[in-house]
Every structure is written in C-alpha cells, then in structure tokens.
Design a protein that fits this description.
By secondary structure, the chain is an alpha+beta fold. 18% of the residues lie in helices and 26% in strands. The protein contains five helices and eleven strands. The protein has a seven-stranded mixed β-sheet, with helices on one face. A four-stranded antiparallel β-sheet has the order 3-2-10-11, with no helix packed on it. A hairpin with a 6-residue loop joins strand 10 and strand 11. The longest helix is centred in the C-terminal third of the chain and has 16 residues. The chain starts with a helix and ends in a 9-residue tail after the last strand.
Length: 276
Amino acid sequence: MKPLLSLVLTLSFPALVRAEDPTPPTEVDTYIPDPLEVPTFTPPPPVVPKVPLIDAETTIVLRDDGGLTTTLQRGQTSMAPDLPAPEPVADPTSLPLERPIQKIITITMGGTIYDHRVSVVTWQHPVTKQPYQAVLGFDIGLLTPIGEFIRDGVTHHSHLLFSNHDTRSPLARRRPPIQVPEIAADAFRITQGDPADLPGIQPLITLRDLYLAEKPRVQKLNADLAIHLRTPKRGPTPTRLPSKLPSSGSSLTATAATSPLRTKTIRNKPSKSAPH
C-alpha cells in the first residue's frame, strides 16, 4: 500500500518532486505588502537646552576654571498636575467577546551562500521536526531583510540566518577548495528529507516563490542597503557637560529675585583638615 501512495504523490505533485524546476508558479499569490525603500538619513537638528521660565526667588551662578557656567534657580513649588487626566475607560460590556484569530506561519531557515549565486539551506519539518536540506540556484540571502510577507492571504514571518562565502577571496584561496554544488539558476534540489512530503518542503517552496515574485524589489533593496551602510552618518554634536564641580577658590554669585541688580559674591575658602 505504501508504494502505491508514493506513486500517487509523485503523480500529483510533479513540480515538487522534479529536482530542478525554475518555472515560477502562476496561481500562487505571494507578495510583500510593505514598501522596500531605504529612507534617506536626515540628521536631527542640534538639541538646544531650554530652561523653563519660573518665578525664581534665588539664582546661583557657578563658574569653573574651564569657563563653563551652571545656573541654579530656586522658586516656588508648582501646583500644576504632573500627569494629564486619564482618558475615560470604555464600558467592558460593549467590547466584543471574541476576537478573530489571525493565522500566521513562521519560517525559520539557515545555511551558507556561495558567491551570491548558490545557497545551501537547512530547515525542519513543521510537524515532525525532521531535518531538511536543499541546494538553491539563487542567493536566498536577499530575503533576509524581509520579515513579513503575504501568501494566498496568509501572513508569513521569516527568520533567516545565512553566512556568505566568497570562493574567490584571498583567504579562501589559502584554504582547501570547496566544491560548490552545480544547479540551474532559480532552481532547487532537495538533498536531505523526503521531496514528496509537501508539508516538509513547503517552507522552501514558499521562499522560492517569494524570491521569484519579488526578485527586482529585493535586489534593489539590498543594493540600497549596501550603499546606506557605507555612507557615514553625522548626528548632532552632543552638549558638553561640566566634568567636575567648582573647586575651592571658584566664585558663587547669588542674586535675589526682588533685587536683580544687587549681587553678592561669596568666595569659597579651602576646608581645613581636622588635626589628627
């Protein structure tokens, strides 16, 4: 009975069992709903510290040897409320008792990408956790920035972790050569696991369909990200804070709020150590 079942699966899913089939599906609706443009970095304006206007009773100005000035003001305690009034809470009886449950499928996959041309990926069967491995004829790392996409109206979350290996780099030339598998462009070949098990290979088919459907967009996104990462970023200059308190000998100027023109200078005296 088992050989007959395998034959039926083979005849029912010829495109899945064939080792290399780069033809994209025509009836699968796979797309990325969000825009894939890298926003232009605009540095924020410099932060200018603003001292709120208060009814000061006493003002103390501290000047240190480095030319930094610190102003301390003491005024009346504010009686305004610290937090705004809370918003009215909706009547719990008017809320829906049941919320629709949205189906979300999560795909986790890892592997190695050779020369941005061939990918060797691994994943697990969604139910049995059986390990799967496949060779792909495209750079699946282009899908790494895509964390969410839609397929047949169902939301998918992807968690992809890959390493890039350049066989033409000087470091790779000093090591034993790696035999990169040969495969046609945009095709895939199952090297571990049952290729006739549709739920088992469905994560790979879903990502392959997403790559074929959004290939120009993901290629442009990764090119823009590479330029964005190479561009130096310049933000606002941080405000320098005094690195030390006024030392002995610095002046303290106290100004009364009622008489702003009258100032009193207090000279700090060095503290004397108590005799031992």
